[in-house]
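thread: overnight batch results

M.L. [08:02]
morning all. the overnight job finished for the chain we discussed friday. pasting input first so we're all looking at the same thing
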Amino acid sequence: MSTTEDLAEPDAAPGGAPHPRETRILYGQDAAEAAFLDAFNAGRLHHGWMLAGPRGVGKATLAWKIARFLLSQSADDGGMFAPAPPASLDTPEDHPVVRRLRGGAEGGLLVIRRGHDDRGNLRRDITIDVMRRLQGFFGLSAASGGRRVVIIDAADEMNANAANALLKALEEPPAHATLLLVAHQPSQLLPTIRSRCRTLPLTPLAGAEFTGALAQAGVTEADSAALMELSNGSVGTAVALAEGGGAEIYAQITALFAGLPRLDRPAALALAEQAAGRANDARFALILTLFDLFLSRLARAGILGPGPEAVPGEAAVLARLAPHDAAARAYAALAHRLGARARHGRAVNLDPAALVLDMVLQTEAEALKFL
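M.L. [08:03]
and the structure it wrote out:
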């Protein structure tokens, strides 16, 4: 039986990156920070905020930053003796709120996230039992009179009953309560939930901001440009790719098709063998993700031409295999078919190595049509 300390946190960052509550610098989201601060200083602090954007761009980090900020501010405006409006969302490291949050002892914060089942495994969604904690938490708020902050990470992981419970909380929020909804796919939420929240859009990172965030996450990958391309500016995805050797795998996939019309069969078998066996489940999943990415980049190249290279020589491969929009449509359709086959294969426990090899051969057959 797993102890509480053994249980994985569902909102933990990938690899060895610090948890969002420990991440001190938020890179690349100045506009979202400024929008929240402006609303606070103008006295227009909405009770519900949706932090929306792709995975891994800093939404949870911003939620914890806002929580630290709000809980360090008085709920009383101070009247004529009020201090000057804050100039940023930063909270001093030595502030008592920061220390309490790090120790999990801040009574003004409630974090709603997926729970664990009796075996210690993470549940697939946020259930009504977890969401019911809101009622007791807001009851304490009425008694204490202080600020209360709720982080829901991620809101698009709620099941229907949990979503309805959240909607009731948004309809009748207590005074000085702020709900922060981390949303990877806001369109999956109820329209009534979205309409009761102000949205803060967060965008993918690029350039020095991406490199800085990557270094803060503990990744010292020499070629951060490759990770930026492969992750579409998501630092969380880039960390996962770096941990699993994603750039190297993508280079192998690209090299496989660089020599067409002759396919390097030994190299194809070597790629497939990396996915063989239960011990390589994570590697198998990563190969599937990167193969789908390769096909997507082929499809994009057929319409827009090759973009910045993720690995050396990629642009030439994409330009050669996807010379026009008809090729783009063919690769997009192939990606859909192979994705469906891979999902089915994983569900019924087909041989991972055979699945990967089949993907290679089907892509070869499609590419030969345009050479």
